[in-house]
Amino acid sequence: MPQELVAADHITKSFGGVQALRDVSVTLHQGEIRCLVGENGSGKSTLIQIIAGALRPDSGTIAIGGKQFPHLEPIQAIHEGIQVIYQDFSLFPNLTVAENLALNTELERGVQLVSWRRVRRIAVEAMARLGRDIDLGQTVRELSVADKQLVAIAKALLQNAKVLILDEPTTALTHREVRTLFEVIPELKQRGLAILFVGHKLQEILEISDTITVLRNGQKVAESDASQFTPGDLVRHMTGRSLPDRPSERACEQWHQHPADDSSAGRGPPTRNYALGTPSRCHRADAVFKVTDLTDRDAFDSISLEVSSGEIVGITGLLGSGRTELARSLFGLEPADSGRIEISGQVIRMRSVQDAIRVGIAYVPEDRLTEGVFAEQSIERNLAISALPSFAGRAGWIRPASLRRAAGQSMTELRIQAPSARMPVANLSGGNQQKVVLGRWLATQAKILILNGPTVGIDVGAKSEVHEKIRELARQGMAVLLISDDLPELVELCRRILLMHRGRIVKELAGADCNEDTLAAELGRLE
C-alpha cells in the first residue's frame, strides 16, 4: 500500500454564514495523481488553501506523513513538503529563470552577497530534476505560459516537494503545451510525489488522473478510480443533473463557390488552404460582417473573413498567432493600420470602441476581471454600463427603477446566480462573472458579437449555459465570431473554423472537417 502523505479529515469551513466546505475528507498517497473537480463555488479552492495552510478550517484536521495538525501555517506546509502551483505561478517576472529558481535557497542561507556561480548551479540542478531545457538567463516575463509553469514546478522540486497541487494548470496552455505537461506529471508520479490536479476539462481529467474526488456545494459527492467515471458521470455528480447533448450547428448551408472554382461542386463546404495573405475566393452572399485585408504592422497581416447573420465562426491558433490582437482591433481598441471593415455592406471606419458600439459590435474579452467587468461594482451597474443612455430620462438622469428592472431581467435570462443585483461582481463565481460580461454587451442590442475565450476558467454547468446562450443569439440572427483554444467548444458551436498562425489566416475548416482530430492535427502542424 502506498504511503499516505496527506489526509484532510472532516474539514468544515464557513465564510460569513456561507458554508464553503461541509465534512470533506480527502487523502493523497505517494505516487498518486488525484483530480479534484467541481463547479465554481463547490469548495475546491477553499480545500486546497486549507491543505496549503493559507486558511484555517473551522473543524477537522490535516495529517501530513501521519503527523496531525489542527491547522497549518503556510511555512509549515512548505516545510512538510506541500507546494501549490497557482495560476499566476508566484514567480518574479523581472528576474531571470535562474534567479527565480535560486531565490528561496539563497534566502534560507541568509547570504548578503550573491554568488552567481552558485545561483546558476542551483538552477541547472532544478531543471535537470525536471528533465527540461529552458534558457536560464531569460527573464520570466519573456517565457511562454507553459515554460513559466515548468519553472514553477522546478522551483517546487527544489523545496523538496512531496505533494504538488496544480490549480487549473491547463487553462492557458496550447494543445501541444498540455501534452508536454502531461508528460511531466507522470514522471513526477514515478518519483513518488502525490499530485492534486484541480481542473474543469473533463477529458483531460479522465486522461491524467488515477483517482477523482468530486465536490458539489461544499460536500464530497463522489470519489473513485478514474476508470469508474465517464464524462457524463462527472457532469451529473458536479451539477446534480445531466446536461443534454446538443446537436452540432456546424453545418454550413450557405456557401457560394466562386464561378471559377467548381472543383468541389456537390460535395458540400470545402476545406481550403489560404495562400498567405490572399483572401479566400469563396464568399457568402449574406455576409453581415466582412473584413478585407485588415493589417496591423505589429500583430497581423491581410486578414479577410466574413460572418453571416445567424452564423458562429471560430478562430483558433497558437499563442502569439495574433487572434486576440485581431479581436481588439475589430472592436476599436487597437485600430488597424489598413484594410476595410463592412457591416451590412457599409464601410466602417473603426477608430475607437465608441465606433464599434455605435455600429452594433460587442466584445467579450479574454480576461473578464481586468477587461470585462468593474469587479467592485454591483451586478446591476455592470449590466447597465455599456447602455447607460437607454436608462436615462429626458434630463439625462439615470432612472433607477428602469435600471433595476433591466438588471433583473438579464439575471433571469442569463441565469446569473446571486441573492441581489446589488452584489459586487467580485463576489460571484467565474461562470456568473462571465454571464455578467455577456449581459453587459447584450444590453447594447448588438448585432455582431466577438467572443474571446468565453468559457475560460468556468465550470461545466456554467459552460453549458453560456454555450446555449451563444446558440440562442445566433438563432436570433446575431453574427458571432468565437475565438477559443477549446477544441471541443469550437467543434460543438462553429459552422466554420479559421486557423491563424503568425498573424495570418492560413486555413479554414468547414463541414465534415470541423472535428477535433482534424483541428488538433492542423494545429500540430503549426507548432
Describe the structure.
The protein has 527 residues and is of the alpha/beta class. It has helices at residues 44-51, 74-79, 97-109, 116-130, 145-158, 175-190, 202-208, 231-239, 323-330, 353-358, 368-372, 379-384, 400-414, 430-442, 460-475, 487-493, 516-526, and strands at 4-15, 18-29, 33-37, 59-64, 67-69, 82-85, 163-167, 194-198, 211-216, 219-225, 272-273, 287-296, 300-308, 312-317, 338-343, 346-348, 361-364, 448-452, 479-483, 496-501, 504-510. It folds into 2 domains: 4-239, Rossmann fold, CATH 3.40.50; 272-526, 3-Layer(aba) Sandwich (Rossmann fold), CATH 3.40.50.300. It has 17 helices and 21 strands. The strands form 4 sheets. It has a 7-stranded mixed sheet, sandwiched between helices. The protein has a 6-stranded mixed sheet with strand order 6-7-8-3-9-10, sandwiched between helices. A 4-stranded antiparallel sheet has the order 2-1-4-5, covered by helices on one side. Strand 1 (4-15) and strand 2 form a beta hairpin. Helix 3 (97-109) crosses helix 4 (116-130) and helix 4 (116-130) packs across helix 5 (145-158). Residues 247-283 have low confidence and may be disordered.
